[in-house]
Amino acid sequence: MKHLALAGALALATATSALAEGETHYLAIHVDQADAQVMNMALNNAQNVRSYYAEQGDEVVIEIVAYGPGMTMYVDGKSPVTDRIETMALESDDITFSACGNTLRNMEKKTGGEVALLSEARVVPSGVVRLMELQGEGYAYVRP
């Protein structure tokens, strides 16, 4: 009977360790400032987290959500981090760049016309609501 219990415990430990390998982690990064340093820090955070988990044999899903003044990050012709976003999008499909629809509408009202975003950015209805949804889904939250 002891051998059976030991075999069961060993099987459980092996299964648990196998499940721990190859985990998927989730990260939401919040950008709400029109500051190149903050934007670069957000992108650095994303790259560092992705590299760390890749070395562990894990996957990571990252979403960078910009709203308010931080939307400058995704505005074509105004973003100070266009090249980095383009490169990161080409390197991997595990990063999503989300732009706040509320902020975009307000920007378009102010300018009286369409505001072009980087092709890598996808519009979500509300940046704040998107961050709430991600946290509700278990994403870790970072605001650089």
Give a quick summary of the entry.
Keywords: Signal. With 144 residues, this protein is α/β, with parallel strands linked by helices. The protein contains five helices and five strands.
Description:
- This protein is of the alpha/beta class.
- The protein has one domain: DsrEFH-like (Hypothetical Protein Ychn, Chain: A, 3-Layer(aba) Sandwich), CATH 3.40.1260.
- 49% of the residues lie in helices and 20% in strands.
- It has five helices and five strands.
- It has a five-stranded parallel beta sheet, sandwiched between helices.
- Strand 1, helix 2 and strand 2 form a beta-alpha-beta unit.
- The longest helix has 21 residues.
- What's the CATH C level? Alpha Beta
Main beta sheet, described?
A: 5 strands, parallel
Instruction: Give the terminus-to-terminus CA distance.
Output: 55 Å
Low-confidence stretches: 4-18
Task: Give the secondary structure arrangement, pairings included.
Layout: H1 2-20, E1 24-31, H2 36-56, E2 59-66, H3 82-91, E3 95-100, H4 101-111, E4 121-124, H5 127-136, E5 140-142
Parallel strand pairs: 1-2, 1-5, 2-3, 3-4
